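Below is one such record:
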Amino acid sequence: MIDYNGKVVLVSGGARGFGAEFARAFAAHGAAVVIGDVNNELGEKTAADIAASGASCHYVPLDVRSDSDWANITEFSSSECGGLDVVINNAGIEVSQRFVDVTVEASRNLFDINLLGVMLGIKHAFLAMSPGGSSGRGGAILNLASVAGVTSTPALAAYSASKAGVISLTKLAATEAGALDYGVRANCLCPSLFKTDMGNQLLDEFVDLGFGESVDNVQEDLIARIPIGRFGDLSDVVNAALYLCSDAASFINGASFPVDGGMSATGG
């Protein structure tokens, strides 16, 4: 059984969706969890709900675009929780636009959150985890990419580009950490569409943009691209994260791990 007792796990975007599920799962496996998010009310509630189960869970405000916010939350993890062993760069947004409707403002905001936010998360994970850092005992980084980073879906130009960038950053992080003897592994997950708030929003937007007659129609088209023939459960992504950040995956590094029912294997 995977055991995170004595480990400290930081989850960005941990107030809801994948992030909240990661926080609950790692806490249930013994970790002390630190949730970072821009939604203070929901973040505090999620942390309180997890702590009510007897686990150690804290909420710290985090705008992933802010260098100082990252410095603050990693320092909190090390000083108040006893170290930092896992950083999950989960925070991200989705924007659906046809190329002819792309706006500079929306695209820049998405890149700042989805790409710069991950880059800063890696930076501060390295600073804390590497020898001489505030934790200094190595660790694991898990970045949330997407099947959209390796396949082509209309209306997701900025989102797909950002997730392809996350895959590249993951490889670079693994390579640089090894070259500098940081003792830190970096991997990323590439999920397909899941029925989270963001996933449901995406289905509605596909219909609004003319890529399906109804949400049911869009869902049928997407499921037809998945060899397993269904959408994934949140537990599918959570279980992959628990494994990749554990000692059981100590020789897995720089990998892009699909959790997509085979969608990427078919070319999407």
User: Anything to note?
Assistant: The chain has two domains: 8-191+233-253, 193-231. The CA atoms of residues 84 and 224 lie 41 Å apart.
